[in-house]
Amino acid sequence: MIRKKKKNQEEQDGKQLSDVLEELIMMFVIIIIINYQKPDANDDMHVSKHSKHTAEPKSKKLKERE
Predict the structure, then answer these.
(1) pLDDT for 22
(2) What pLDDT was estimated at residue 29?
(3) For 17-21, 27-31, 32-36, 46-50, which range has the lowest pLDDT when averaged over its residues?
(4) DSSP letter for each residue of the chain
(5) Confidence band of 48 (pLDDT split at 50, 70, 90)
(6) What are the phi and psi torsion angles at 54 (to 5°)?
(7) Residue 66 C-beta-side C-alpha neighbours within 13 Å
(8) What average pLDDT does the segment 50-66 reach?
(9) Which domain of life is it from (predicted)?
């Protein structure tokens, strides 16, 4: 009886460890995804800034044509 209890507890500990490992892996995956998305957001901001700068001269050219 005692041996069976020890084996059951070892199996439960193993399951708990695997669950903890799964949670850690998911956390790392989420962190990596967030870190890869941050530079993309910055690039979008840079693009929008450049598009604003290029939009101004075009509007000036259109005004000159009119």
Answers:
(1) 95
(2) 95
(3) 46-50
(4) -HHHHHHHHHHHHHHHHHHHHHHHHHHHHHHHHHHHHHHHHHHHHHHHHHHHHHHHHHHHHHHHH-
(5) low
(6) -75, -25
(7) 6
(8) 58
(9) Eukaryota
Residue in this structure with the two tokens 């005692």, named with its chain if needed = 2
Rg (CA), the chain: 29
Pull the structure tokens for residue 36: 């890869």
Residue in this structure with the two tokens 């998305």, named with its chain if needed: 37
